[in-house]
Each structure stands twice: as C-alpha cells, then as structure tokens.
Task: inverse folding
C-alpha cells in the first residue's frame, strides 16, 4: 500500500513540475487587460518611458511594478518587447547593477 501511495505522490509531483515549467502557475490576464488596444503608452512631452538605475535585486518587472504602483496592464511578452525597443535590443536578463536603462510607462485607457 505504501508503494502505491509513493508512486501516486511521485506522479503528482512530476506532473506539477511539468505543468509549472510548460504552462506556468501565474494567472492568465483577463481578456480586457491583456490586449494592446486597452493599453496605451503615456505620451507626456514625447516621453513614453522613464529612466532608472538598476539596484541589486531589481528586475525589469519589479522596476515597472514599483513605478506603476499597481499590477501591470500588459503581458510579459509586451513588456519584454517594449524594454528591448527602448534599450537598443538589450534583453531584460542582461541588465547590470548600477547601469541606467529606459523602461516603458503604461496606463490603462479605462482610467
């Protein structure tokens, strides 16, 4: 009986790891908040971005969430594309501590 329980538990753990790695466990964006039509980049005197120096432990998403003071209204793929566009193709995982980078500013059109 113990062997069967160990086998079942092993399958559950393996399936959970497989699901986490392939699909992910973050909730999907709702239909309204994920589309590009419902989100605009703030245009303030031709500025749709802000600059910030990266500190230890910062990530592109943590910096954007800190600036946004709320959840981000776009998908992670859109964030990556916008970051790379603003920083001459630099990938988010290549940011360096102490360097200053440009980050997009997002606003929900429904506000």
Result:
């Amino acid at each position: 009986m113990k062997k069967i329980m160990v086998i079942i538990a092993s399958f559950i753990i393996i399936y959970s790891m497989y699901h986490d790695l392939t699909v992910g466990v973050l909730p999907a964006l709702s239909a309204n908040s994920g589309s590009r039509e419902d989100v605009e980049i703030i245009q303030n005197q031709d500025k749709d971005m802000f600059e910030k120096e990266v500190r230890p432990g910062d990530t592109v998403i943590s910096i954007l969430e800190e600036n946004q003071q709320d959840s981000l209204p776009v998908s992670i793929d859109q964030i990556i594309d916008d970051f790379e566009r603003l920083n001459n193709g630099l990938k988010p995982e290549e940011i360096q501590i102490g360097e200053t980078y440009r980050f997009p500013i997002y606003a929900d059109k429904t506000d």
Q: What stands out?
A: Residues 2-22 form the longest helix (21 residues). The longest strand covers residues 49-53. Residues 15 and 21 are 10 Å apart (CA to CA).
